[in-house]
Amino acid sequence: MEKYIVHIDMDAFFAAIEQRDDSSLRGKPVIVGADPQAGRGRGVVSTASYEARKLGIGSAMPIAEAYRRCPGGVFLRPRMSRYNQVWQNIYAILVQFSPLVEPVSIDEAFLDISNSFPLFGNPAETCLKLKKKILEETGLTASVGLAPVKMAAKIASDLSKPDGFYQVEKKDLLKFLAPLGIEKLWGVGKKSQKILNSIGITKIKDLARADKEKLKKIFGKNGGHLWELAQGIDRRQVELPEEAKSISNELTFSRDTSDYGKIEPALSKLSEQVSTRLKKQNLRAKNISLKIRLANFSTHSRTMRLVKATNFYQTIYEAAKKLCYGFGFGDKKIRLVGVKAENLIPEGLNDSLFQEAGQAKKEKMDQAVEKIRTKFGQNSIWRGGSL
Ligand code: TTP
Ligand code: MG
Hints:
This protein has 387 residues and is an alpha+beta fold. It has helices at residues 13-21, 50-53, 63-69, 80-97, 123-138, 150-159, 173-177, 190-198, 204-209, 212-219, 221-230, 260-280, 313-327, 359-376, and strands at 5-10, 30-33, 45-48, 74-76, 101-105, 108-112, 142-147, 165-167, 246-257, 283-294, 299-310, 334-346. The protein has a 5-stranded mixed β-sheet. Strands 9-12-10-11 form a 4-stranded antiparallel β-sheet. A hairpin with a 2-residue loop joins strand 5 and strand 6. Helix 4 packs antiparallel against helix 5 and helix 12 (260-280) runs antiparallel to helix 13. The chain binds thymidine-5'-triphosphate and magnesium ion.
């Protein structure tokens, strides 16, 4: 299946937010960074608005130098919590376009829209809708690149700046890369650039023609990777953020217990919480694990691989129960239990045509419970097992 990878990067992010929040700053050179102290400041520029960039001011420049170039500019200290908040709003828009979103920094993310674009038209239309929605909802412009691989999508968004869109089709990938400088490749830093230049490699097409084994000798394993990038091969997939890789809840009993009459309702409640969190993030788990801490504080865990990735309460609860019975703690008392969903994938990515026997019915029941909760609150309905 053909891949459609999107890279989005907000334009002059911190400065654009300042100009949006205070309309008197629009059209003016705005420099966000350290205090310039009338040219004596010792810090650096975080970013500059496009008006200030015309004067050669940009990220990482000494603030004193920026002041010298534009003493009449508007110099502001960064308001990180504000920028984070705006990025959260943008992120909430991104996940409406694909569940597979990988944030890279405070204003940048990759999306894999290979499965979701038909909902919005073709891949290019999807990107334009995404840009439009971000502008409508946040008043900010984004630059968007679309390509069959991550590194080309990133280069494309960069080339389209500001407020642009650039698509690289699969058939044009090598033609697109060939004339670019090697420093454009994601993974070529200043040091590698210097070494490559010294052996006559300046353009991506030079790198593509270079001897792979020679590159490996110079750069080790990375040499092979660089050579592949120059051929348009990038095996890196769009990955969910680290914190979304597992979801778990645990509970400590008020008294250590070996009574299944107490343990089962605890597992039910934990499975319920894990299920709700998975659904909220549009994720399904391939593995469920159970954590048990005994009265003597020894901690154990057992994992089960599911036939089909799930976010449904009943399936999680049954897996947790099976693991618990299989653990065989005898009459040893338990202090804490935990249920964890691991190996998470975005909803809709592995929808099998054949559902587990009986699963469809359980899923319907689960959806009904969720509906009641959304309407009447989290505690309006509890399942038999967790009463
Ligand atoms: P960038 O996306 O690199 O820059 P930008 O959004 O300001 O401008 P562009 O239109 O070229 O994308 O970085 C995002 C934010 O991260 C930027 O607004 C400020 C911050 N930042 C720093 O604080 N220091 C730095 O050296 C860089 C590069 C960015
Ligand atoms: Mg940016």
